[in-house]
Design brief:
This protein is of the alpha/beta class. It is built from seven helices and 15 strands. The chain has one domain (about 5-245). It has helices at about 15-25, 30-35, 80-85, 90-115, 130-145, 175-180, 195-205, and strands at about 5-10, 45-55, 55-65, 75, 120, 150, 155, 155-160, 160-165, 165-170, 185, 190, 205-210, 215-225, 235-245. A five-stranded mixed beta sheet has the order 13-6-1-15-14. Strand 9 and strand 10 form a beta hairpin.
């Protein structure tokens, strides 16, 4: 039997911090993740974790807190980030998972900006918090010995948001490009529910998208988002179990 992870993005979408929070709730060691990431050539940071109630659902909120006195580097090339991961001290499997998450972002940005993958530079996704979220998720999946990842169809939200290039409709161009081939659910909630980082996590790692697969559930975790909604809790539900054939 293999250990599988099911990510339920059907109500509140998915982001990097929500995923890391859900994996921490499932038992991933955030202190060890932080230690391993401190060796990366990025701005100083620390991980802060706290339990919060979202519409009655107790969940874990994980924030990447950066040093206010260190100027942020918002723009990093994909080739730079990939080399950073490959030369790091994290496990080979965590490296592979992290690169699998970054790849669809690079492909989407290359398509949108009409350039090559190697020349792509990331804006928000190149910031330290996104790097920590993505590599942290990869390390957490390796810690939890997840063999396969499955995902629900994803809700993206509605309305418009402001990004580096101006105001765009939700989902943002990079998010929508990443989600090619992924089933998207209709939503009347105003705002961005699925971020480029969250979209890349499910696009890069998920085997398939649909209802929860046949499994014997062993653990359930909840990762909290920042926003609050009237109709439902803003959480990502993550379920670990053994695959039932």
């Amino acid at each position: 039997m293999s250990t599988i992870l099911y990510l339920d993005c059907s109500l509140s979408g998915i982001s990097g911090d929500m995923t890391l929070g859900a994996l921490a709730d499932l038992g991933a060691d955030l202190e060890l993740i932080e230690q391993q990431l401190q060796s990366f050539p990025i701005e100083p940071f620390k991980l802060e974790r706290k339990g919060v109630l979202k519409k009655g659902i107790y969940s874990q909120k994980v924030d990447v807190v950066v040093d206010p006195d260190t100027p942020p580097a918002h723009h990093r090339h994909y080739s730079t980030i990939k080399k950073m991961i490959e030369e790091s001290q994290i496990s080979d499997r965590a490296k592979q998972l992290a690169i699998r998450i970054f790849e669809p972002i690079a492909q989407a940005e290359a398509k949108i900006h009409n350039t090559s993958v190697d020349k792509v530079h990331f804006h928000e996704v190149g910031a330290v918090d996104s790097i920590v979220d993505i590599v942290g998720v990869a390390i957490a999946l390796d810690q939890l010995e997840i063999n396969q990842v499955f995902s629900s169809p994803v809700v993206v939200g509605s309305g418009s948001i402001h990004i580096d290039h101006g105001r765009y409709p939700v989902p943002a161009p990079a998010t929508l490009e990443i989600l090619r081939g992924v089933p998207i659910l209709e939503s009347d909630l105003n705002g961005e529910l699925t971020t480029p980082t969250g979209a890349a996590i499910i696009k890069g790692l998920s085997t398939s998208f649909g209802p929860m697969p046949s499994m014997t559930v062993t653990q359930i975790g909840y990762g909290a988002g920042t926003k609050d909604f009237e109709g439902h809790p803003n959480v990502l539900r993550a379920v670990i179990g053994e695959r039932v054939e």
